[in-house]
Structure formats: C-alpha cells, structure tokens
Design brief:
The protein has two helices and 22 strands. By secondary structure, it is mainly beta.
Length: 299
C-alpha cells in the first residue's frame, strides 16, 4: 500500500488534491474553487464535503472506533455486497465487508469545475467464506459545487450473483426537530421496526422517534429541508429504485457506543440503495453503477 508521499507524487494535483494521515489513517483531501472534501482510503468513505459558503453536509461522530477494522460512524460508508444483515446468515458482518478495507487510489483528474478521485478494490480468496463470488468495485468521486459518487460493481468471476447495497449517507442537520424529508410522498415502505410491514408514506417524513425504513419504487430526488440552517440537501440518483431513511433516536443511539449523547439529533441518514426488492442481478462480465449526487440549496 502506497504511503501519502507516494500518492502525492502519482495522483496529487497542486493546491487542489493531496494525501495525508488523519488519526493514523490515510486520507485524501480536495480543496478547489467550488468545495472542500475529505475521503478516507479505508472503506473509500467520504468523511466531509461542503460547497464554498455552506456548512458541512455530512455528519461524522467525534467518537472514534477502538479497533482499526471498525468504520468511523458518519460520512458515506459503502454497504456491499449486501445491505443490512446478511439475508441467510446473521453472523456475517452487517452491511457487507468492504467498508473496513483500504481501497487503492487508481486515478485523479482536474476537471473544469470539479476534482475527480477514483478508488478501487476487489474481492480476494479470503472473502469466499463470506461471499463466494468475484467482483471489482470502483468508486468515482467528483467533488465540486455538487458531490457525485458513482459506485460500480463488475462481476469478474464465472458465476452470476445477486447484489444489494447502499451509499449510507449521514446528513448533518441543525436539529432533527427542524427537518422534513420530501420526495417520498405516496410511496410504500418496509418498516424495519414493525417486522418489515409494508406501509404508505403520506406527506413529508417527520422524524420524532426512531425511524428505519426501506422506501420502494423510489428513483427520484430526495430533499432534506433543514429550517434551522435555512438550507435543503438535494439527493439525485440512478441505478437505484429504493432508498433508506434512518435515525436511531435516543434509545437506540445509546446502544452503539459511538454516537454522542445528543448526536442523533444532528443527523439523518437518507441512503441511495439497492435494498428490499431492489436486487441487482449480475451475470459474469456485467456491471452495475449506483450513483448519488448531493447538492445544497438555500432557503
């Protein structure tokens, strides 16, 4: 694995993209005319992004994991190749096994109004005990006035497989009581807190208790309106017909150990996903791209 100095020489862009160590972990930083961003190579996890003149878009817990294999809570962890508990074996890691892996930097570019960074990883023979298939993953990050994340899975093996996953975005909010989430009106969702009962959304989503839902048939935008900050976070997507909305609320948050006492009040997860009945089937040689693009609007 190349160190920060080697990555700077190969992929750095003067005064725009560089590499460093943060709390013992390798990270990439982007500072351009449109935005600032930080990306951890561990898990290819976006930890920070905000357009110039705006507050931070992603929430990250100040409580760091005690063990190196555990992912920092917050930002945009990658759930792959399954979302949530494994469908057949609950002893396997929740949300798959690539979020704790150090990805390889394979490319960078200075674009007209943004900066591009590309990271890759692939399955190894050791992964076969968890998932008996072969695949290559590429995360393309384009950071500018918007943040675009493109996660591409390519089946590099000889067997077809089914795939679920998510870009598990933790969005920073002023206070959850000042937030409404639009774009899901009239859609059905699976309520994970009620044995996956199928229910219908009426009106905007208001969070005043624990929420854990898979929204079905959702391929349009989601809008998180934050009246406390006077802004809206708009999420556009492709390669997805499901979205997950999650907030653990006070009781559940206390069980995690890495959410501060009032931390649950300052984030909501609105996740671009392949979840529920939104299962991707990939034949050998085929690929699928899950894309989410974040934008900040004022007012």
């Amino acid at each position: 694995m190349k160190d920060a100095a080697e990555l700077d020489r190969e992929f750095g862009i003067e005064n725009e993209l560089g590499f460093a160590e943060m709390e013992g972990e390798p990270i990439a930083w982007i500072r351009n005319a449109a935005c600032s961003a930080t990306i951890a190579r561990k898990g290819a996890q976006v930890l920070s992004w905000y357009p110039q003149g705006h507050a931070e878009v992603f929430w990250v817990s100040p409580i760091r994991p005690k063990h190196s294999e555990i992912t920092i809570r917050g930002g945009v962890p990658i759930c792959w190749p399954w979302f949530g508990p494994h469908p057949d074996d609950p002893t396997k890691p929740i949300h798959g096994f690539v979020c704790g892996r150090r990805w390889t930097v394979t490319g960078s570019s200075k674009l007209a109004q943004a900066t591009e960074l590309v990271l890759k990883t692939e399955t190894t023979p050791a992964d076969a005990v968890l998932w008996p298939y072969q695949a290559e993953l590429t995360l393309r990050i384009i950071a500018g006035a918007t943040l675009k994340l493109e996660l591409t899975t390519r089946n590099t093996g000889t067997k077809a497989f089914d795939l679920t996953g998510a870009l598990h975005s933790y969005l920073y909010v002023s206070d959850i009581s000042q937030v409404e989430i639009c774009g899901f009106e009239g859609l059905d969702y699976l309520d994970k807190l009620d044995a996956y009962a199928r229910k219908r959304q009426t009106g905007p989503i208001i969070i005043n208790g624990e929420v854990d839902r898979i929204y079905l048939g959702h391929s349009d935008r989601a809008v998180v309106r934050d009246f406390g900050l006077g802004r809206a976070i708009v999420i556009s997507k492709s390669g997805s017909t499901s979205s997950v909305v999650w907030n653990p609320w006070e009781g559940r948050a206390k069980t995690f150990g890495d959410i501060p006492e009032d931390g649950y009040r300052h984030f909501v997860c609105v996740e671009t996903a392949n979840a529920g009945d939104d299962v991707i089937h990939l034949e050998p040689g085929a690929e699928h791209t899950l894309m989410a693009e974040f934008q900040v609007a004022t007012g």
